[in-house]
Structures are given as structure tokens and as C-alpha cells.
């Protein structure tokens, strides 16, 4: 399995018991969605390796306690400590309306009320305080805050996102 065909679930942050159980800090608002996982991919040495899950349960707020097959002692648990977990993109529930997964809108055309076609979404930068659409138009990069108030319509069929940005925002990049 290739990482680009998967989504990030969380990171193994701690051992739970001497029997190899681990705690995973999940990257989600809905941790209960991950209770029924049968398997997971763990990023080991730049490769995603599949592991079967014997048991899982929520532990405190956003932690998932996992018993992974063949991880039966502290040494085995140490070997996967701080490793990232992934699942195939096909496991994501479909979103509707203006809700979307970041990977889903890459390549969509961004259409602004005032400027029309302002380019193609090349990435979503979520390393900043506020996530940003990275849009490319004629070799120029335009950064648009990912803000629900700006997004008018996400059209999956036509691969477009209609937006209404504040006056002057697009001018910063096109002038």
C-alpha cells in the first residue's frame, strides 16, 4: 500500500501494558469511528506494513488503546513507538455538500465571484494556524484561507470550488 492512497489515522504515543498494548493519539473529531478497525498500516522505515488488530477501545479523550497481533511484549511495542498509522482512502465516509477531505479537492478549479477562474488547487497547507488553499494560476501561487464563509459551493461533478473572497485578497497575488 502506498501512502498517497491512504489517510493518516494517528501516531502511537505510549505503551499501555507489558503485553504489547499501545495508545494511539488519533487525528479526528470522532474517535469512535476507529473502534471497529480490523487492520491498520504502520509506517515502518518508509513502508506501510499491514497489522491486524486484536482488540481496540477508547482510552480517555482522544486516545485509542490497541492490541495489535504479534506485538506481544514491551520490546515489540517499543519497536513501533512514535510510528504513524494509516488506512486506505476507501475507508473514509463520503462527505456531502461543502464538506470535503483535503486530498479530495486537489486539482479542483477555484472560481471566485469577482475574478472567475483563479486557478487550480495544488495543495492544502494545514501547517499554519489557519489552513490555506494553495492555488496556481499562470505560474503564480495564490493562498486563500480555508474559511467556511468564503466557500460558496463545492461541486464534485465539475471539480470546482466556488468562493467569495474579501476585496483585495486576490489582488495581492495577481497584481
The overall number of domains is 2
Would you report the number of β strands?
12
- Which stretches are poorly predicted, pLDDT < 50 over at least 5 residues? none
Q: Label the overall shape.
A: elongated
- The N- to C-terminal Cα distance equals 43 Å
> What's the story with the biggest beta sheet?
6 strands, antiparallel, barrel
CATH level-1 class of the largest domain? Mainly Beta
Rg to the nearest angstrom? Answer: 20 Å
Residues in helix, %: under 10%
Protein described:
With 175 residues, the protein is mainly beta. Helices cover 6% and strands 46% of the residues. The protein has helices at 74-79, 171-174; strands spanning 6-15, 22-26, 39-44, 47-59, 63-68, 84-88, 109-112, 116-125, 132-137, 140-145, 151-155, 160-163. The strands form 2 sheets. The protein has a 6-stranded antiparallel barrel with strand order 1-2-5-4-3-6. Strands 10-9-8-7-12-11 form a 6-stranded mixed β-sheet. The radius of gyration is 20 Å and the shape is elongated. The protein starts with 5 loop residues before the first strand and ends with a helix.
Give a brief description.
The chain is mostly beta strands. The chain has helices at residues 74-79, 171-174; strands at residues 6-15, 22-26, 39-44, 47-59, 63-68, 84-88, 109-112, 116-125, 132-137, 140-145, 151-155, 160-163. The protein folds into two domains: 3-91, Elongation Factor Tu (Ef-tu), domain 3 (Beta Barrel), CATH 2.40.30; 102-174, SH3 type barrels (Roll), CATH 2.30.30.
Amino acid at each position: 500500500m502506498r501512502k498517497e492512497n491512504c489517510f493518516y489515522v494517528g501516531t502511537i504515543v505510549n505503551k499501555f501494558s507489558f503485553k504489547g498494548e499501545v495508545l494511539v493519539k488519533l487525528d479526528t473529531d470522532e474517535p469512535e469511528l476507529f473502534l471497529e478497525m480490523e487492520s491498520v498500516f504502520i509506517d515502518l522505515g518508509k513502508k506501510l506494513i499491514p497489522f491486524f488488530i486484536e482488540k481496540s477501545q477508547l482510552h480517555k479523550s482522544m486516545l485509542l488503546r490497541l492490541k495489535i497481533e504479534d506485538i506481544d511484549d514491551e520490546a515489540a511495542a517499543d519497536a513501533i513507538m512514535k510510528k504513524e498509522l494509516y488506512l486506505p482512502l476507501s475507508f473514509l465516509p463520503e462527505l456531502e455538500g461543502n464538506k470535503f477531505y483535503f486530498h479530495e479537492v486537489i486539482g479542483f478549479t477555484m472560481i471566485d465571484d469577482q475574478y472567475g477562474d483563479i486557478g487550480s488547487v495544488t495543495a492544502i497547507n494545514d501547517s499554519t494556524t489557519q489552513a490555506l488553499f494553495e492555488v496556481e494560476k499562470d505560474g503564480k501561487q495564490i493562498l486563500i484561507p480555508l474559511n467556511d464563509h468564503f466557500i460558496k459551493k463545492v461541486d464534485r461533478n465539475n471539480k470546482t470550488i466556488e468562493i467569495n473572497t474579501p476585496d483585495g485578497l486576490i489582488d495581492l497575488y495577481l497584481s
